[in-house]
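Key idea: predict the complex, not the pieces.
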Amino acid sequence: MKRRLHPKRSHTFLFLVPSLLGVALFFVVPFGMVIYYSLVNRPVNGEFVGLDNFKALLHNSAFLLGAKNTAILIGLSVPLAVLLPLKLALWLERAIPMKSQLRTAFLSPMLVPIASVVLVWQVLFHQNGTLNAFLETHVDWFHSPWSILMVLLLYLWKNIGYHTILFTAALAAIPRTYVDMANLDGAGRTRQFFSVKIHFLAPTVFFVVLMSLIASMKIFREVWLLTGSYPYESLYLLQHFMNNTFRTMDYQKLSAAALMLAVVMGALIAVLLSIERRLDQDTENE
Amino acid sequence: MKKRLIRMTALLLTLLLLLSGCGNPDQPAAPGETVTMPDAAEPPASDKLELPKEVRLSGHRLLDICPTEGGYLLLSVDIWGWHLTTLDENLTVGETVDLSKEDPSPYRILEAGGHRWTLENDGDMESANYGCGVYCDGEFMMQTERDPALMQLAWADDTLYTVHFLRLWCGKNEVEMPDQPGANFWVRCVLQINGQTFAMVTAWTEVQGTDERTSVGRWLCPIDGTTTQLSLPESEFPILVDRACWNDAGTWVLSGSKLYETDGTNVTELCDLAAWGLDFEKFSTILALEDGTFLVMDWDRLVHVDPSENKGDTLTIGLYHPDYHCSQAIAAFNLADTGWQVTTRTFEDLESMNLAMLNGELDLICSSDLDALNNYAVKGLLAPIDETTTARVLPNLVPLCTVDGACVYLPREVELVCCSIPASYVSAGDVADLERLISRIEANCPETFESNAKYIVLQNILNQCGSGWIDWQTRTARFNTDSFRGALEFCNRFEDDEYTASINGGAYYNAGKEWFQIYEELWLGNYYYKVHDDPLKKTQARTLFPFPVGSYTGLGLNSMGFYAIVNGSNTSGGQAFMDFLFADEEWFDEPQVPADFGSEFPVNLSHLDEFLQRRVSQNPTDEFEQDARELRELLLNADHLMDPLLGEPEQIILEEAEAYFNGDVTAEECARRIQNRIEIYLSERG
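Result:
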């Protein structure tokens, strides 16, 4: 007997068609084109070359340099962008004076236009800039191996405030019962945090990790404004490679790099999701 | 059942609502949007004026045309002076009046409001009134600006409007430009739309110390006879307008080579005037006729243009920093009977041209950006130029324009570029080694270092022989070498700023000093004075050589633009264009003034020989003939193109050199940083 679609389901599908069309047009089709470009050897009248573009990319020193620097930046910025705001949020949880003013101050970097921030950073870290005057040195920070730290500092300054607010809200949502019980059992602050609070903070931590991951990729904008399309090697990020290959119409390299990045990011997020799911289960079981 | 019916009706209505938002042709376009209007009703063929296709006055440069009673007045100039020619309504040439050479020379003429207005070049270099004046019926009315050839007269609202690109007068009142820090305002023209008069105004910002300009905006600013200050409207006009004309049927504007109809907000392209063989860099006037056709004038021809005319198979040429003779080449090709017409598309940035290339919208390219052309060639976007064409040009030029085994671009003309130093200051071998050259300069002409600026010298070195430090085949850079460090140190010895250098240079020149020149253009007009002593001017013969980076033995070739064929469906048409461009038959007109020697040489060998022969015949001496032979030899032995690093590599080097010139880093550190960054640039392309 033929199985007929339930009338309600067919109506639902019909209502979804316009959204599906939009998603297809703006996401699925472009993604398909990226896959196509990654498998041909030139942007116009290209011939199918299989995985040759990916193999060439793994031997391209510019791509490897960009990937390495991006990995370093992510490896440094994401943990710091989680731990520092969490610490600040725990500190704000206590009874300290000017708490609301402090919260406003933490959020204010988000209001500053990027171009202004970049200008200030250039003045601060220029060879004849403020930091060198203070330290009585003459280091060109943007041309040194420490240049990645300047970018890290910029990233943290921009994003810590927002993450702190997220953690503050998450801490406020923890049921007082568990904290009080831990207090009664004689648990100290550290024990309370690791035994009670961290389980309830898990979803927020996951969310902040995800946001930090995305923000660490977007830091390219500030780096580009500071140093241009071809910066010193320690500041050359993966997105520099992609930007420049777009300008020179190397779409096959660009597409292959984008696909590789998508796979890596997808794997990373899958790992994070599984950890988050496990932590969620632990919390529910309690 | 009823509920089901209601649900289905609701669903259908929702879908209809969504679909109704798509493409309503009656909706007005957003401001600035280009809209293709439905074809206007064409007047029947029998109502169109029967006019000749063009009018030429042999030997004359055409300046302006205006309607008058019974026809037109045509203003022109030749080597004998200024002339006013009457044309009847059928453009039949009538009487030509020779305007006296002693009188001020008119560049613009307009009959309106019962008067004859002219814009005349008056005064002299010594006079405080030197410049240009507006005359009414022969009587002086007001002083304006210099450059009369760049000025326009327009009549609207019973008012005469005088336009200079930096200034505007409404009647006798000069109009104040808007005040925006950092922005330079230009007035392009005056036009009238539906009874309202406007000034087309654009604004630019300039990067200090460079020729780079960025367009800030373009507006139609309403004006009338009492306007004293321009106010910018909120919305911009979609295109940059150069000329305009109007009558009761509408308003039309020229932008580049294209003619548009406009209602003040939207524009509709009617035709590309290049298809009529008009040189779009030399448009002077356009008049709208009552039958929907136009009279368009460039320096050579008055052409009757019917936009509805089918001009045959069309090629599109993309222009990105093109050769300044390109418009002339396109005009000449469109006049020739090749079966093809070329229309133009001008690009302000490389990304737009990249997109047009990928979409197959272009058949030809003219650009001075070698980096972009090489990139297109490597990606197979350029078609090889036929060997029958390349066989006609300088044989040493073809390998310089070859990428992956095929010659894919060629310039129409080249300049010969080198360094020079008084021959008595150097001996054999000195000019081939940088260290020896520097020691000769220090010993014999140390004022060299005070007569030029660091950045200018560095830029010249990069332009002349930057490729000496890059191997494009293996994609390796050699900036971290003694040769480049030596060049940096050499540049660092010069003055910090251009102004001081020019003051010093002027003083030394007046004192009769001679020194090392980083950049020389050689042509027949100056070659004699380069290679011979001149007792009158008290100058010495000079040794000519390429800057010694070790890779080159010949001089350099500079070109204002290269032509290339795009690999696509119209490759045969593109090849026809290249055949015409490099044909042995001469189509390039000589300059009007015999003494006007340019510094460019045609790359076509037979053209080159005819060109040199013509020059020699104008000055038939043994020395001149010998100079012509030597220049020909130098041209044929030139072994590199200039500006190979134009774009990112040059920017990187100049940025890093700034720190070195400021004393913040050593030459070694500077060279190391440049090597580092250029390596990234090259490995991206690997």
